[in-house]
Amino acid sequence: MKRFNRRKDISPKYILLFLSAICIALIVMSTISPGFMRPIRRVTGYFITPMQRGVNGIGEWVNDRLKVMGDVKDLREENEALKKEVNYYQSEIERNESELSELSELRALYDLSELYPDYNMTVARVFSSNSSEWFSEFYINKGMNDGVYVDCNVLSDKGLLGIVTESYDNYAKVRSIIDDNSSIIAEIGGNNVLSTVDGSLTAIDNGYILISDIDKDADIEEGDRVVTSNVSDRYFFGITIGYVSDITMDTNNLTKSAHLIPASDFTDIDDVLVILDRKREVNY
After folding, report:
1. pLDDT averaged over consecutive 10-residue blocks of the chain (284 residues)?
2. Of 259, 255, 257, which is closest to residue 217 (Cα–Cα)?
3. Confidence (pLDDT) at 146
4. How far apart are alpha carbons 274 and 149 in whole angstroms?
């Protein structure tokens, strides 16, 4: 027995014709009797208007979100561009500061060279050090081709750094005054009190090196300037080494000792001044 199926028996075209007929009837009725449509408009307005408002609200919300997303994208792009610009200017500032620092240091070295007009000098740059903490031994980019030989005195803008111990064609090795192997005949204060300044990597950790062999009756005070002595066979006279601190009497009651605060900074050395003249000639 064949079952009756309404859904399949009713053709879509009949449904369309039925709806079209209703629409036409409503149009005719609204033309003939405008009041007939008022209840229908009220009913449809009651349901349709809130739906329209809701749909409009959703549309406005979506539109606002899209605008915000667009603004965020623009802001991100602008932010990235500003970051690149800031990084560029930051690198320029750092480069200019580095150049200014180097220029200032070179000017200080030039002013120092004016204090020793009788000496031939050259500026050199430090390119390596044997220690990461203290510049006890370091290398400069000038050598025998530039007139830099063993026993050339090496200065910073503050005073004595050390002496050249090895020299090659294009570079040289410098032993600083704080090195354990450094020993300098020096004079203290205005009374030309002789003493010996010895380097000490142990003592420099506390900010000083050692002064010894000071006569017990010598008139010296803390803060007195210590300079290279003319008695020295390797160092030229009058170069500032540092300043006296913590004077004590030795156990032999014949001599005094003290600490010396170096005039130069041995934690960071970039450019140096090399005196090309030497107090003694060294054969090669």
Report:
1. 53 70 69 62 60 66 68 73 72 61 61 73 91 90 96 93 97 97 94 94 96 95 95 93 96 95 93 89 54
2. 255
3. 95
4. 10
Cβ-contact 189, 160 below 8 angstroms? no
CA distances for 102 relative to 111, 187, 271, angstroms: 14, 32, 8
Q: How far apart are CA 236 and CA 230, in angstroms?
A: 6
Q: What is the DSSP string of the chain?
A: -PPP-HHHHS-HHHHHHHHHHHHHHHHHHHHH-GGGGHHHHHHHHHHHHHHHHHHHHHHHHHHHHHHHHHHHHHHHHHHHHHHHHHHHHHHHHHHHHHHHHHHHHHHHHHHHHHH-TTS-EEEEEEEEES-SS--SEEEES--GGGT--TT-EEE-SSSEEEEEEEE-SS-EEEEETTSTT-EEEEEEGGGTEEEEEE--TTGGGGT-EEEEEEETT----TT-EEEE-TT-SSS-TT-EEEEEEEEEE-TTSSEEEEEEEESS-SS---EEEEE---SS----
- CB environment 191-221: b (16+ within 10 A), e (fewer): eebebebbbbeebbeeebbbbebbeeebebe
Residue 78's pLDDT is 74
**Type of residue numbered 256:** K
Looking at the DSSP bridge assignments, the partners of residue 261 are: 243
Q: Comparing C-alpha atoms, which of 186, 148, 144, 86 is closest to residue 277?
A: 148
pTM comes to 0.62
